[in-house]
Each structure stands twice: as structure tokens, then as C-alpha cells.
Amino acid sequence: MLFASASDETLIGKALGGSQRHWERLVRRHETMVYNYCLRMTRNTSDARDLLQEVFLAVYRHLPSYRNEGQFKGWMMRIAANKTMDLLRVRQRSPRLSTDDAALDAVQQWQAPDTQNPDRVYEQHNDNHRIRTLLQALPPEQRLVVELKFFQHCTFEEIALQTSTPVNTVKSRLYTSLQKLKDTLEERHVV
Q1: pTM above 0.70?
Q2: How close are the terminal C-alpha atoms of the chain, in Å?
Q3: Which of 32-41, 150-159, 178-187 has the highest mean predicted lDDT (pLDDT)?
Q4: Nearest-angstrom CA–CA distance, 17 and 97
Q5: 98 burial class (0-12, 13-18, 19+ CB within 10 angstroms)?
Q6: CA distances in angstroms from 7 to 10, 60, 80, listed in the order given
Q7: Of 48, 61, 105, 189, which is the most buried if we count CB atoms within 10 A?
Q8: Comparing C-alpha atoms, which of 167, 148, 171, 149 is closest to residue 157?
Q9: What is the mean pLDDT of the chain?
Q10: pLDDT tens per residue across span 18-50
Q11: HSE toward the beta carbon, residue 85, CA cutoff 13 A
């Protein structure tokens, strides 16, 4: 095991001991996941970059109080979810037009299209656009649950922990979201 990767807990311990190098390794290990999550939730690259910084600043500030050995990813993603929800709530109170084409392009890459078939590429592009539009129409709390369940592959228990919400409420939000998406699709005769 020549190039064994240090666990999150090992990196955290060294970072708490003052090692900048270990803190940077911890950030690099998780920054793509956090950024992609923020980008999917906000659909804005600038907001996603700002949130990425806010999340890791909060993680750094609160790292001495982290006590959930083996649960760092969940703890960090709960911070990301809270920061993102705060931004989305502010945005709901004072909406602005999002014209960030780079974010839209990045979100379209959720599933790599079959590049050999132009019809399939076009169809995939339209499907991705419809999905993004439908998800953006959901309230932030419901969109968060859908994001964590289907894009982060979290269990109901992990979502409940990350959102500080009871498991039954998480389930209810997910099923309500799915029903809204289904109803909207049926109204538009898309299904």
C-alpha cells in the first residue's frame, strides 16, 4: 500500500494540529462534490463558487467541534445544505433573473448523452432542460430532498440528519415533490 489515502478523520486531526497541507487535502477531496451540489441547487456558477467558499469557511471554523467520527461527509453536506437553503430563501424573497449559461451547461451534464446519435443528443438535451425547469419550480425544501435522494444518493436517515428534519417529514417532502413533478408532467402531456 504505497499510496494509501488518508481517511477524513486523519486529515481532520492533522488539520486541527495546524497542518495547512492536510486541510488543503481535505478540501480538495470534497470540493467537487460540494460545488456540484451547490450548482445543481442554485443553477448559478457564481453562487456555487461563493457557497463553496462559505461552506469550507464554516467547516474550518467549526472543525474543532466536529465529533461524528466517520460521518464527516454528512456533517459537511449538512453545512452545505444549510448555506444553500439560506441563499435560496433570500433569493425567494427577492428573485432575480438567472442567465448563467455556464451553469445551465454544467447542469446539462447530469448524464452523458450518446454522442453517436444526434437525435438522442437532442432528446437528452430537451429532457435535461425539462428536468431542470421542473426541479426549479419546487419549493427549496422539497428540491433539497430530491437533490439529496437522487443526486447525492443519501438514505432517508442521512437526509434527516443533514436537514435536521424527522425522517417521516423527509419522506413526505420527497413523495410530495415526486407527485408535484408527476402532476406537472401530466399537465404538460410530457409523460
Answers
A1: no
A2: 51
A3: 32-41
A4: 44
A5: middle
A6: 5, 17, 21
A7: 48
A8: 167
A9: 79
A10: 989 999 999 999 999 999 888 888 888 999 999
A11: 18
In Å, how far are 80, 107, 163, 184 from 170, measured between CA atoms?
17, 24, 9, 21
What is d(CA 131, CA 62) in angstroms, rounded to the nearest whole number? Answer: 35
Domain annotation for the chain: domains and CATH numbers: 1-106 (1.10.1740.10), 114-191 (1.10.10.10)
Torsion of CA 40, 46, 49, 53, to 10 degrees: -120
DSSP single-letter state for residue 92: H
pLDDT value for 111: 44
* CA 111 to centroid of chain Cα atoms: 16
- Sign of the torsion angle spanned by Cα atoms 115, 118, 120, 124: positive
Q: Write out the three cell numbers for 13.
A: 486531526
**d(Cα 53, Cα 99) in Å, to the nearest integer?**
22
Residue 153, number of CB atoms within 10 A of its CB: 8
